[in-house]
Design goal:
The protein has helices at about 1-30, 50-60, 70-80. By secondary structure, the chain is mostly helical.
Length: about 80
């Protein structure tokens, strides 16, 4: 009986190991690799002083007055709980 119990335990351990290894490979198969650069990213380099002035003017004219509006609304909604 002891030999049969040992064989059963060995079979169960092998089965559990196979399930764990299979699950690991199954879960990692669907994960995308982030190591490769995206070809979609593009930057516009500033070539001269007029480009620098244009970028500076764009930044200066950006309206940031309402940037916290949604956060303030979330705070208001959360305080009603």
């Amino acid at each position: 009986m002891k030999n049969q119990k040992g064989n059963t335990m060995l079979i169960v351990l092998i089965f559990v190991a196979l399930v764990l290894v299979g699950g690991y490979f199954f879960l990692n198969r669907g994960a995308p690799s982030n190591n490769q650069p995206s070809s979609q990213q593009q930057s516009n380099a500033i070539q001269n002083d007029s480009g620098l002035m244009s970028a500076s003017n764009d930044l200066d004219s950006t309206n940031v007055d309402g940037i916290d509006t949604e956060l303030n609304q979330n705070d208001t909604d959360a305080s009603s709980f």
